[in-house]
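Q: Structure tokens for this one, please.
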Amino acid sequence: MNPSRPGTHTVYINLDLLFDFYSTLFSAYRTYFVKHSTCIDNFKKCIEGKSLDEGLASLVQEVSQELDINLVKQELRPLLEVSLRCIKPSIGTYTLVKGLSKAGVIIKTFTNFEAYVVDIVKELHKDWFNYEIIQINNIRDMKDTLNYANKETTLFINSSVAYCLDIKAENIPTIFVPHSKRALESLSKDELLKQTLDNAGIATFETLEDIDWNKFGFQSVIEWPTPSYFLKLDEKPANLEYQVWKNVHKMEEPIELTSNIVHGFGRGGKKLGIPTANLDMTPEIEEKLVNLVSGVYYGWAEFLPQSQAEKDGNLEYHTRIPMVMSIGFNPYFNNKYKTAEAHIMRKFQSDFYNSTLKVSIHGLIRTEADFMKFSHLVEAIHNDVQVVKDILSENPL
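A: Here is the predicted structure, written as tokens:
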């Protein structure tokens, strides 16, 4: 990609468009509040667009004014630590920054998240994410940043409408991209907001990969991989994000569960091409999973015969098979109840409903994410499966 305007281009990108902070944090929050018998499914709006501390304070205020925010922070710390240690780049992020860097574009990012949150991200992804991160906590900080921007060769990509309007007022090309599916849905329903952005001359795109770079003086667009709508798990992931998807949280001790396999929503095999074994969420299993952040886990699974006479020739009993396991609410599909679904990484000739499955959960790959596109969900699952293949082939546990 070659800029057609003179001078070295600089692209400023809001960090929350590159990493899904809000889903990462919300996974920890939901786990914490569920333990306290409080449902916060409709409160994600409280944290979006805010720093960690500001968002948590807003959420706690919404849940109950009687809660002690300092006690909540203290009790949340272990869950937040696990969640942030597994934060992954959003699908398309690595493709974007690699393409811009290859073209000689200077990339700078900005955020209102606290320094310790940013430091975790920088440490985890230091092998590829070595771009400047500017702390912006208010409009004044943004204006100070604008003072150093060359208006002829600078482009801002932001998820904050207020900041977009201030940047555009300085005659700097500006793009608005929503930071979440919820924000995108709100934008689609808000005709006044869309008109405000249009009147200000602010270009709006649903995701980073939808940006029309030609409109902003670039001669060609980034070469995005063909979107995936059905998993092809016999092949390596095509998205570049897989290369930087490998930070996981390994548990000190595995969690073991034994359950009958029950019918789920029918999406794993039919819609995604990844047949899953849905565990029966008994009180005993719910109790074992109550402290786990909602997300995608890895480990082993083995089938147990209910009796010698009931053995199924389709299944290999007492044999450990690698698995990827989703534990949580699956925000893309708006599940209302917690589920545990294991993808057993072996091909089967028929289904295995009513069979007995023993699983051993060894670690967390990533927290739940509210993907902007169905193809992003497919690519993320493909990455998850490949990461588990890599982990268990190198270290059988």
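A few notes: Residues 374-394 form the longest helix (21 residues). The chain has a mean pLDDT of 87.
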